[in-house]
Fold this protein.
Amino acid sequence: MDKIIQGIIQAVQLIVDADPVVTEIVVLSLLVSGTALLISTLVGIPLGALMGLSRFAGRRLVIALLYTGMGFPPVVVGLFVYLMLSRSGPLAGLNLPFVPALFTPGAMVIAQTIISFPLVAGFTMAAVMGVDPQLRLQIRSLGATPLQTTLAILSESRVGVIVSIIAGFGSIISEVGAVMLVGGNIEGRTRVLTTAIVLETRKGAFDVAIALGIILLAITFLTNLAVLRLQGRALEE
Amino acid sequence: MPDAGSNAIYSLRQVTKAYNGRQVLQVDQLDIGRGEILALVGPSGAGKSTLLRLLNFLEPPTKGTIRFGDAIFDTQGDMPLAARRRVTTVFQRPVLLNRSVWANVTYGLALRGKRDDSEMAQQVLQNVGLAAQRGQRARTLSGGEAQRVALARAMVLRPAVLLLDEPTANLDPYNVGLIEENVVRMNRESGTTTVLVTHNVFQARRLADRVALLLEGRIVEIGDNESFFNTPRDPRTSAFVRGEMVY
Ligand SMILES: Nc1ncnc2c1ncn2[C@@H]1O[C@H](COP(=O)(O)OP(=O)(O)O)[C@@H](O)[C@H]1O
Ligand SMILES: [Mg+2]
């Protein structure tokens, strides 16, 4: 018990002092998850809008894949990315641009993008499908081009779209299996909040582990708070 | 104006519309004159709304052609954007954007990159009696106010053709009066061609230059206001005019 209380006190000290090691881990976490989320959003929102608003051959299959992706175990995504990027993997010999090496932040971004993008696309699709179909007709009747119609529908379902982004973020900032596998938890290079907590706890360095835990909790709590507020606003409207 | 003839803005020829193989509309010939108010009456399910969707180029016909000015709308469903933007519809149920009244009224202008036409928008809002509500959220309006916003949002575009799909169904006399007044003023002042779908025989009588009766997807009778109501040729028109038709 003493050890835990001691840990908490030191953890608060580390946070207050903006300890450089802790800061570096937090920054890398936000950078990796933020980049992954940015890519997921840029791909997921247009894809979700397309799924929700148009009918084409193969749409059901894509939706089934999306739903599967939404519930996919992150560690399996990590394994998949690991195999793809490993020296004996299919991408290794090709020397392609933009394909990062294993155990780099780039590899972690790829894994987290694959984890979060089905959530962004899936929730966006659901939000867009919830918009009154009569509204689409009305928007077109007012002279909107197909692109303008899509933008108007996304704007009408903006609360749901923002929730989709935050859900995507929540799924990766607190994820540990995939980043551990493809990042390798290398100090000063690929160590993020979750993997650092695992390591520090194992080492018995509870002060650092608790400090990182508090920060991670604060980040996820704030994002959940934002989701709740937005959903509340959606219910009021 | 019994025959729109060469002054027609629309010419429909052998137009049919079917959904899942079931034909719901068959208009062999219909010319709509530039600047006229044409009322479409008929029982529920007659195909009135379907005809309006075709006239607004929202759906292609299953067969036939709709000539609109120089453009032809056929089964391909292609219509140049510029032509499409000369026509707009006010639907029976007003569907507004979840934004302010002002944002709704200026939405069509924004689509056309004409955000700066705010004087016109203010004027139109005044005409429908909603100048004071311009900052209000559209979702908080009453049914009548919402329909007036929908009308204002259409009128501000100064369309060549205004399509109205039972715009005053379920509204109180005050709102009906305001809407009718604006539709007539716009027609008189700007020469806006107006196609008004209505259930209400009296409304058709009050507003229309010509009236057409649609039954089971076909135009049973079309004529100028006077003859349609006073000397109908088809017994079904007489029955409808006398309010005997069940719908
Ligand atoms: N999108 C659609 N799919 C299938 N059937 C439709 C569709 N739209 C209209 N219909 C059918 O077409 C017929 C005419 O409908 P409508 O044009 O709405 O009639 P009205 O407006 O005169 O009441 C009805 O039988 C209706 O069920
Ligand atoms: Mg109808």
Summary: The mean pLDDT of chain A is 92.
